[in-house]
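Re: your question about ABC transporter substrate-binding protein

S., sorry for the slow reply, the queue was backed up all week. Below is exactly what I fed in.
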Amino acid sequence: MKVVSFLPAATKMIYDMGLQDYLHGVTFECPKEAADQPKVVRCILEGKNYSSIEIDRIFSASKAQGKSLYWVDDELLESISPDVVFTQDICEVCNIDTVCTETAVMKLSKTPTLVPLSPNNLQDVFECAITIAKALGKEEVALNYLAALKKKTDYILDQLRANRAPLKRIMLMEWIEPIYNCGHWIPFQIAAAGGIDMLSNPAGDSIVTQWEKILKYNPEVLVIAPCGFDQKRSLEEMALLTSKPGWDNLEAVKNNQVYIADFDMFTQPSIGTLVEGIEALACMFHPEIFKADENMAKKFINYAQSLQSV
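Result:
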């Protein structure tokens, strides 16, 4: 069986479950494990260092013109002749969507099975792992994989209960300019880590959120994790936030509880990376209970500490 993944999260879960021998093609955004795989999907933003504002403008213009940011290498896809193609319908900016995938698949001489993975909440992402493995005839592999991850989330919940940890008032930003709140599975990650984000949109799309609303909400902890940005990239754009009126008055800022985090723990819906995100959030929300190990400590940084190290 030959599989092509048009979705980085699916690629990541395939590797995490040890099913990569089935994989014969990926997107340019797929994780480092898939670096040697043929790149079937490309993007007009690939290799560019656009700012948050520029990316938002490019996407808005493309959407208004009915165009996609992504394109498929039809010849390469035909040469692979896949049996299964994994795709998504969550975000037109993050990945190629099912409509574009269907258009590409219609041109193939052999029609593959199209498997859309479009989770809305955290439980949906868990089930996506089962959907992937089942499509490859390896459902038991997914069940073992998920059982190990559930032990990690159960441990966090047990520690929060044992320590009677209060819920922290959180905001997690998915984009800086314009500011987007968090949606889909991220509010559930926040809840699993001992927080609550009242500006979020659970199981729905993230949306533009006005700065005045954030000032009134006044989060205790602010997590900044723009989609597609690592810590270094986000730090380059922090002036867009710190220059806003009232920034210094936010409780999170006054108490040095602003964090910059790698996006792949949140807007990359592989269940393994999302569980890693829950672990990271628990360390941010409740550092008196949870301590980041050496690897986890590389995935996020306290903004005030980053300024001291410059």
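The mean pLDDT is 89. The radius of gyration is 20 Å.

Happy to talk it through on Thursday.
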